[in-house]
Amino acid sequence: MSRPDLLEQIYTIVDQIPAGRVTTYGRIAAMTEGATPRMVGTAMRQLPEGHTLPWHRVVSATRRVADHGGAQCQMEKLREEGVVVDAQRRIPTHLFWP
């Protein structure tokens, strides 16, 4: 499978994550035909300016918002959707999709 095909699969899955819910890089990878969690993370980092994908709904397997340049923005977007992030930046398991 080509990289553009995998990117399309990743972006299609991310676009389906409902507001107020999150999923992990690994869960997204498992729904594709060959992507790895690292590839999903790279795809999220390389989204073009002006995109509308809900990238903020993708978190690590530890249920934490990763420590990256967009972490504050990610937490704010999640909070706007009603997702509670605790002091350790973890998200409750009942909010995970699918």
Automatic annotation (TrEMBL):
InterPro entries on file: ATL_DNA_repair, MethylDNA_cys_MeTrfase_DNA-bd, MethylDNA_cys_MeTrfase_DNAb, WH-like_DNA-bd_sf
BP GO terms, sorted: DNA repair; methylation
Molecular-function GO term, any one: methyltransferase activity
Residue ranges annotated for the Methylated-DNA-[protein]-cysteine S-methyltransferase DNA binding domain, each copy included: 8-83
Keyword entries, A-Z: DNA damage, Methyltransferase, Transferase
SUPFAM superfamilies for the chain: Methylated DNA-protein cysteine methyltransferase, C-terminal domain
Entries under Pfam families matching the protein: DNA_binding_1
Protein name: Cysteine methyltransferase
